Amino acid sequence: MLSIIAAIDQNSALGYKNQLLFYLPADLKHFKALTTGHTIVMGRKTFESLPKGALPNRRNIVISTRRDLSFPGAEIYHSLEDALAHCEADEHIYIIGGASVYRQAMPLADELCMTLIDAAAPKADAYFPPIDAEVWEEKSRESHQADEKHPCDYAFVNYERKVAPTL
Q1: Would you kindly state where each structural domain of the chain is located, as residue ranges?
Q2: What is the pLDDT of residue 167?
Q3: pLDDT value, residue 93
Q4: What do you get for the CA distance between the two ends of the chain, in Å?
């Protein structure tokens, strides 16, 4: 199973200067609950943005064209295809960013695990690819209101692919 997990604002923005756009503790908890015990695949910049390096209790895979890289607790591959080729058929793999890795993974993914943020970030420099309604069907939605810990409304929305992924 290949899943994409991301949090995006109303304009499909993902981040700014390699940081998340909004601090939503419930989204971080949701991310941890879904990905713990599974494989996470990310680009180098996403890995470098993690405050403590490799995320615990997950197989961390980093994609980079740089040949001289080494990150404690992470495997390095030079393409998404190479990384996926080193995964077992029964592994649940989550693509966690960034924008270029999401673009590469969209044709291959089975599901999207999205946090849709009901706000527009003032600045953004990374964007999620369009979610094509011809390809993706919404399967579930869990909406949440802004509160003292969450600056805006948001929803956890899961999409499943309507047509077989491109291999």
Answers
A1: 2-161
A2: 59
A3: 98
A4: 13
β-strand partners of 135: none
Which pair of structure tokens corresponds to residue 4?
Answer: 């994409």
**49 near 70, Cβ under 8 Å?**
no
Query: Given the DSSP bridges, would you call strands 136-144 and 93-97 parallel, antiparallel or unpaired?
Result: unpaired
* Three-class SS of the chain: CEEEEEEECCCCEEEECCEECCCCHHHHHHHHHHHCCCEEEEEHHHHHHCCCCCCCCCEEEEECCCCCCCCCCEEEECCHHHHHHCCCCCCCEEEEECHHHHHHHCCCCCEEEEEEECCCCCCCCEECCCCCCCCEEEEEEEEECCCCCCCCCEEEEEEEECCCCCC
Q: Mean pLDDT of residues grouped by 10 in the chain (167 residues)?
A: 98 95 96 98 96 96 92 96 96 97 96 98 96 95 96 97 74
Phi, psi angles (nearest 5°) of residue 129: -65, 160
The pTM of this model reads 0.94
CATH 3.40.430.10, domain 2-161, yes or no: yes
C-alpha dist (Å) from residue 122 to 14, 17, 86, 125: 12, 13, 39, 11
- Give pLDDT, residue 67: 85
